[in-house]
Amino acid sequence: MQLRYSYRVYPLPAQQDALARAFGCARVVFNDGLRIRQSAHEDGLPYVSDGELSKRVITEAKKRPERQWLGEVSAVVLQQALADLSTAYRNFFASLAGKRKGRKVAPPRFRSRKDNRQAIRFTANARFKVLDNGRLRLPKIGDLTVRWSRTLPAEPTSVTIIKDAAGRYFASFVVAAPDQPLPPADTEVGIDLGLTHFAVLSNGTKVAAPKFLRRTARRLRRLQQNLSRKQPGSANRTKAVIKVAKAHARVSDTRRDWQHKLSTQIIRDNQAVYVEDLCVRGLGRTRLAKSVHDAGWASFVGMLQYKAARAGRTFAKIDRFTPTSQTCSTCGRTDGPKPLSVRSWACPCGAAHDRDVNAAINILAAGRAESLNTCGAQVRPAHAPAQRREAGIHPDAA
Asked: Can you give the pLDDT of all 398 residues of the chain as single tens digits?
């Protein structure tokens, strides 16, 4: 399994200037390639191939006076910028043809020099190297100081240098990490994700929603107000922008760290994990949008998925249209939709349910049924006696 390992790097001022040149050159090559392909399309000419594009925007461009400064950076950085452009076009064409899942992908856009996030990528051809003293050697940039929070499990195949909106630098290594199977566990769990409680497990455990963004709303509001008072284009406005970006980065880092710890614990304690396939994009357009984005369900489910695959656990998503909150987990009766204000309800069979715990139990049952169906086993529900009010013929029911 290929994973990314990210580490904080601390370039010197001269190295920051070299990285800024590399960011700029990669952006110019990307934009030049995009402009050539757009012009060819408008003129009715054939699609410009990757080889021809590389020749025109890199090899021949270095010989022209207005682009000769492209030779100041590693050629691999420029080639990878064109590779990103080709990937964007392939995703766009696949989306048009209906071969790509998810929402429609727009055509590539020009990169802006005012973008707060910049990135360049070095592959093995660039001959980057992690030195014995712990520094990262990059061609035409130098030896960068890296804060190694953990060791790399294998030799990296590529490294991406990222500068985020807060002005921090990171080195993101792509590593073919070996699987780490865990000892078999005798428990399975279904997880119902929500806003009042971030996660409710089928065993009755409730994990409170930390609401990292809500807790820092007052500080963020003050920083945004301070930013709005700055003169556009001034140095003070630039400083205020960085302060706002650092506050948001702290929220994001705290949320990611908390989700990593929770997902690791769940995967370690359970042999199978089942979750509901939520439509986060649709929920993000409702009045609960801020709380939905603050929860970060999609990133948490992604962590569960790759950690389960690496640990040899079972992970599955059930259909989002399964009425988990409407079905009694005891008798299987569907009681109809209920507003969010209803947190507990009683079934005519006599069972009293907590809404979230009942939904988690139903998610577990649906996940088990899907896993059995995948193996070809019989998953038809067992016969259950009808309720007293349901038995017999009711002429007036229609």
From this structure: 889 999 999 999 999 999 999 999 999 999 999 999 999 999 999 999 999 999 999 999 999 999 999 999 999 999 999 999 999 999 999 999 989 888 889 999 999 998 889 999 999 999 999 999 999 999 999 999 999 999 999 999 999 999 999 999 999 999 998 888 999 999 999 999 998 899 999 999 999 999 999 999 999 999 999 999 999 989 999 999 999 999 999 999 999 999 999 999 999 999 999 999 888 888 888 888 899 999 999 999 999 999 999 999 999 999 888 888 888 888 888 888 888 888 888 888 888 888 889 899 999 999 988 777 655 444 444 444 444 444 444 444 43
Name residue, tokens 């360049």.
Answer: 120
Catalytic residue annotation? 192, 276, 356
How distant, in Å, are the alpha carbons of 119, 130, 151 from that of 155? 21, 9, 11
Residue 317: which of 333, 298, 339, 341 has the closest Cα?
298
- 16, 52, 13, 17: which is closest to 32 by C-alpha? 52
φ/ψ region of 299 (left if φ > 0, alpha if ψ in -120 to 50, else beta) reads alpha
CA dist., res. 199 & res. 297, Å (int):
10
Coil, strand or helix at 16:
helix
Beta bridge partners of 53: none
pTM: 0.85
Separation between Cα atoms, residue 159 and residue 124, nearest integer Å: 9
What does the alpha-carbon distance between residue 157 and residue 161 come to, in Å, rounded to a whole number? 14
CA gap 321, 362 in Å, rounded? 13
Q: Which two tokens stand for residue 377?
A: 């086993």
Q: What is the DSSP string of 351-393?
A: -EEEHHHHHHHHHHHHHHHHHHHHTT---PPPP-PPPTTTSS-
Task: Count Cα neighbours of 244 within 13 Å in the Cβ-side half-sphere.
Answer: 17
Helices and strands (DSSP H and E) totals, the chain: 10, 14
Which whole-number Å values give the CA distances from 180 to 5, 261, 265, 274, in the listed order? 16, 17, 15, 20
